[in-house]
Structures are given as structure tokens and as C-alpha cells.
Amino acid sequence: MSILLYFTIALFILLCLLLTVVVLIQESKSMGFGASFGGDSGDSLFGVSTPQILKVFTGWLAVIFMSACVILSYWTTSQVRNHSTEFIQTDVEES
To answer: How deeply is 34 buried, as exposed, middle or buried, from its count of CB atoms within 10 A (0-12, 13-18, 19+)?
Structure first.
């Protein structure tokens, strides 16, 4: 069970990195991060309709990120509770 938990946490970290990259790629209302690479504020990195697509994609990634946060929070809390319950039962059985 712990291998699945670690795998899920690794996927969560990849999701965090992807969300960070997608947010940084987007155009801002000012010159923003795109100007660092010599781009014009009117130029888009991937084409004309990209800003709208990136906004939608960022929204979906944010929803997935928040859901994953809640799921991992409950999952790790239940893991700790099960581990502490096993520890208490072992102490009672030994005495």
C-alpha cells in the first residue's frame, strides 16, 4: 500500500511542476515572463488561440490540484491513524 502512496505523491509533484510551467508560459497583461525570452507582449509562444486554451487548461489543472490535495490529505491521515492504532494494540498485547 505504501508503494501506491509514494507513486501518487510522485504524480502529485509532477502535477505541481506542470501547473507551475503552464502558469509561467501564459501571457500576462504586462510584458511578463515572455519578455525574458525576447518575445513581444503581443506574441504568443504557441499561436494565436493559445491564451484561451492555456486559461482553460490552467483551470482544469487547478481543479485537479485541489482535488489531489484533499485526497492525499485524507489518505495520509488515515495511514497515520492506522499506524498509531497498530502501535497501541501492540503495546496492549505486550503488557
So the answer is: buried
Tens of pLDDT along 49-58?
777 888 899 9
Domain assignment present for residue 7? The answer is yes
Domain for residue 38, yes or no?
A: no
Whether the predicted pLDDT of 17 surpasses 70? yes
CB of 43 within 8 A of CB of 11? Answer: no
Residue 61 lies in a domain: yes
pTM comes to 0.64
| Number of CB atoms found within 10 A of residue 45's CB | 14
